[in-house]
């Protein structure tokens, strides 16, 4: 398990919501509805009186955390030798472009691609201009 939780790997600790904040309460409500076995459409429906952008942000961060955990369990089996290409089956190859280091779409081994992708997502989620953490700030940013 040491390899799974190695900071140099793609796995990152869960991004948590500050207890006592509106996002924390929305997260608890989302978790309760998803764990209750109700139909998925009802589980993701915007709670009455809540801001849609805050609700979506909570789910984006939760999705990132879940994907991170899943990838953390398989990353030791997908090495540059065993996964030399980031692909979605035989018909699709994913290439990385970030307009900084990789100016053009570049073929990379799957682990390297995933590290870059997870780093990029983490930067987006931590960007207060995109995912503000202050209550009600999402409304201002997206207007």
TrEMBL record:
SMART domains: Mob1_phocein (SM01388). SUPFAM superfamilies: Mob1/phocein. InterPro entries: MOB_kinase_act_fam, MOB_kinase_act_sf. Zn(2+) binds at residues 78, 83. Keywords: Kinase, Metal-binding, Transferase, Zinc. It comes from the Eukaryota. Pfam families: Mob1_phocein. Coiled coil: none annotated. GO terms for molecular function: kinase activity. PANTHER family: MPS ONE BINDER KINASE ACTIVATOR-LIKE MOB. This is MOB3B kinase. It comes from Halcyon senegalensis.
């Amino acid at each position: 398990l040491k390899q799974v939780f190695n900071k140099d790997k793609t796995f990152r600790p869960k991004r948590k919501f500050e207890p006592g904040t509106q996002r924390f309460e929305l997260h608890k409500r989302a978790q309760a509805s998803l764990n209750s076995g109700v139909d998925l459409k009802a589980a993701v429906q915007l709670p009455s009186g809540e801001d849609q952008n805050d609700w979506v942000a909570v789910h984006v961060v939760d999705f990132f955390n879940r994907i991170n955990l899943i990838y953390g369990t398989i990353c030791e089996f997908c090495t540059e030798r065993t996964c030399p290409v980031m692909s979605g089956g035989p018909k699709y190859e994913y290439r990385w472009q970030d307009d900084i280091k990789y100016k053009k779409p570049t073929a990379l081994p799957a682990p390297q691609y995933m590290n870059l992708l997870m780093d990029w997502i983490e930067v987006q989620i931590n960007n207060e201009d995109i995912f503000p953490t202050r209550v009600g700030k999402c409304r201002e940013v997206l207007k």
